[in-house]
Write a structure and sequence with these properties.
The structure is a single chain. The chain is mainly α. It has one domain. It is 69% helix and 4% strand. The protein has 6 helices and 2 strands; from the N terminus they run βαααβααα. The chain has a two-stranded antiparallel sheet with strand order 1-2.
């Protein structure tokens, strides 16, 4: 069975994450960072509720602003990557609320850099980790790379 992923949806998601987290940093807005983290975690837990992908599906794609780019791929590694990023943003928010600004914004920066690496270079660090865990036989990481 062919498994499909719309790379355009993933890229829009990454662009929103990068843009909003950069804005959170510039505005020193813990609450905007928290919002992005919640969106990431909710979209991981319930993919149909992924706000940024819904904006793509219901606004950008129908308006012809972004064209679909459907490829054969596993969606699970991408969800894992987003979930891991959401956890890192959650840890950043905790650090920021605890007065640890350097740690908090550094963690936000890490998520921005990794999302940008995926968006601009096409390397998904979270997907790489997912497939390494699959190779090691870790339970819950059942999908092997599609060749």
């Amino acid at each position: 069975m062919d498994r499909k992923v719309d790379e355009s949806a993933l890229k829009v998601n990454q662009a929103f994450i990068i843009g909003l987290l950069l804005l959170a940093f510039v505005l020193d807005s813990v609450w905007l960072a928290a919002f992005v983290g919640v969106v990431m975690l909710l979209g991981t837990a319930v993919p149909g509720l992924s706000l940024f992908k819904r904006i793509y599906q219901h606004v950008l794609k129908p308006a012809g602003l972004v064209k679909p780019q459907v490829i054969t791929d596993n969606p699970e590694p991408h969800r894992f990557a987003q979930g891991f990023g959401g956890v890192v943003v959650a840890l950043a928010v905790i650090a920021l609320l605890a007065g640890q600004s350097v740690v908090g914004w550094a963690l936000v920066g890490l998520v921005i850099v990794l999302a940008a690496l995926n968006l601009f270079v096409g390397f998904c660090a979270g997907c790489f980790v997912y497939y390494q865990l699959n190779r090691l036989g870790v339970p819950g990481f059942a999908r092997s790379p599609i060749r």
